[in-house]
């Protein structure tokens, strides 16, 4: 008989019509109550077995982690927390899970640390926490696509392997098909990349922005959603060597339009999660409440997870110029009392995470968009303001997360861009195609990048970015 | 004034309300008719200028490729092919396109070969053909997500950088952050990957299947949609070194379910394109009709592009076992007359593209699903049939494209899989986590991979896979 996903079964009314479900045993109490989960929802269906009617051999194999098929009728549940349960007429063990072996894994029914779960990343999606996180990740991904498609953006796949290393967003991984031990050398004794697969040196992309700009100049509104890479030795809870980035790029948008887009977009996807992932969010919220109980009162969250999400959706992001932000920071208590690791002394300073968090968490107490940064601390492609000191850059800062979006209005003037590239030693020859955009029908345009994992961190309330991607890549770690 | 996307303007009724559009000039006829395109649709809006009311300097700069802003009222069009046009009251040139420079590019108004367009891939999206192809690519991508999300699948991001090279789907690219010229060596004089970023040798993934299986065992139904790589020197019109793959994986699905899923899925996304990309499909269809006119009658397409798409959506895919297919091929004319390059002599032969195309294009004249292939020519993870000779593999074959989907029911039996890995010399130590899936609640499960670019090729009717991805990667080519 065709089986039904448990998420649908749980919404059905009791009926005499027999149904079949398949899934994995979460627990089997009193030789009578099977809690069965199939991943379609965080909720289990309770399957009630009248043990006298079943073979002992079968019952013996219904243990935590086993895959089983259950048939029966759906009846009103006597227990708490569920409306319906299955009165089992037939049960078949599809795949056993030897309790002695299970004991050695994170599938065993006790609390495991997140570090332990990370070591068994191939099994952790079977736990409530990771099931919830990964279902949310999936729904958020879809919300991203839905938002852009509804608003007339075209999705584009920018290249992963790139021959250009001009963008300078970070250290790059090299890609090669050469024999690493004995690579061919040229006349100067350097590795001869002319003999490599692409006949040149290639890297993994750090951003699809420059290519996205080429498409915005043809299709108008585009977005990317793909993997990007940083070969940086950042062993933190907020950095990954491989992560997914979303980069919209819009012809004719100025910086104000860009800020509007970022805010509207973020609110849309968070709202989508609130509306479509209630059960998983409730679980993750309770997880955080439990976690908080072991903390000193002063360190506990002021808002629950869903309150925090609603807060973002319901309030305007505060827009503050870099210059205003510097004034606020200079006059702030932690600056005056030298509590910051980096004391803000003058305009032009690069903001550190501690400053961003002060602005967002202490001063404004809401998401903040900082804009018009000093040109000296930002990338070559950002549009120079009339003051010739600042560029039309923007960063969206989130509580607990810090920078979640970085974007800008792009320099659309051929001569200005060319001079900037020269000043910053960026090869005009290599980026001729990027300059071409300013030669043929150039126009005001803007875009931003959003690190998808940071968004998932925020929405799930998880603390470590390695726990919101299935198989995290970080220094020393490329397991699975 | 806020501008409106041209796709929306073209659907509006004439009105005295002034509107603004922005876009790029496709042509400017008789100092009077501007054809303006903004990428939101293949269709241009005609903007009618009363040249006596505008400065000569402005009019001079309205040339092919220039970016302009136009304001005016929408009136009924006198010309053919459009319902409305803009009676221009104001025009501003945002970015010029020097006709002398344009002449040197593919933006110049004459026919350019696809090869030439490929060399200027940063500009080609501004042509009708590539605008249409890339809009279709975007819509097809969304259809992929919508299909799976509607059907309760969870999207997962499988790792791009992988420490495993066990799958054997093809040659891999190496990823490294080491100094390639002077890499650190170990005691044996080999490159010491312990000093590399991930402290081991790493590659670019060839498939996310094995990781997707781990998630199917927790979430039930999952799919991937991400880039995959092959370092193979295949300089053909059907191969890329970097391409996007879709890989659903479903717990409890057997091979018949898997075939149903593949067929249902493909029909859904093609239907989505038919319904949501009418203008672009019409353009591409006419393009093919024009192209056909220069061919001998015998080589012309029997069906138009949209007829071909409808044919796939409206007909059942023919399901044929490998054994039946061999019989058909052995007795076929081209085999008997030795017209095939590879003559089919006996059961066990690997099918070549020419055989697949014969089955699909000559014999069955519809999409075909071949299944139950000899174990010896298929991957280690495919489920062995009771005959112990064949495995539960399936390939979906499309006219003109060949293999568009490859999939299988997976070997879920621990002992059988272990033996198979041993026989095929696949490291048990490296894939311990894959074997674990067969230890803890194993179950029947199946999945497949669909090369996204092959699907886009089919739907757009383009002839070369390099023309359906923005920046193709192939031997000797990693430009942009």
From TrEMBL, chains A, B:
Keyword Membrane among record annotations: no
Compartments reported by the entry: Cytoplasm
GO cellular component labels: cytoplasm
EC number: 6.1.1.22
Any single biological process term in GO: asparaginyl-tRNA aminoacylation
Residue ranges of every copy of the Aminoacyl-transfer RNA synthetases class-II family profile domain listed in the record: 134-470
Gene3D superfamilies: Bira Bifunctional Protein, Domain 2 (3.30.930.10), Nucleic acid-binding proteins (2.40.50.140)
Pfam families in UniProt: tRNA-synt_2 (PF00152), tRNA_anti-codon (PF01336)
Keywords tagged on the record: Aminoacyl-tRNA synthetase, ATP-binding, Cytoplasm, Ligase, Nucleotide-binding, Protein biosynthesis
Swiss-Prot/TrEMBL catalytic activity: tRNA(Asn) + L-asparagine + ATP = L-asparaginyl-tRNA(Asn) + AMP + diphosphate + H(+)
InterPro entries registered for this protein in UniProt: Aa-tRNA-synt_II, aa-tRNA-synth_II, aa-tRNA-synth_II/BPL/LPL, Asn-tRNA-ligase, Asp/Asn-tRNA-synth_IIb, NA-bd_OB-fold, NA-bd_OB_tRNA
Keyword Membrane recorded: no
Major enzyme class: ligase
Main location: cytoplasm
GO MF: asparagine-tRNA ligase activity; ATP binding; nucleic acid binding
Quaternary structure annotation from Swiss-Prot or TrEMBL: Homodimer.
Family, similarity comment: Belongs to the class-II aminoacyl-tRNA synthetase family.
This protein's name: Asparagine--tRNA ligase
Organism, scientific name: Patiriisocius marinistellae
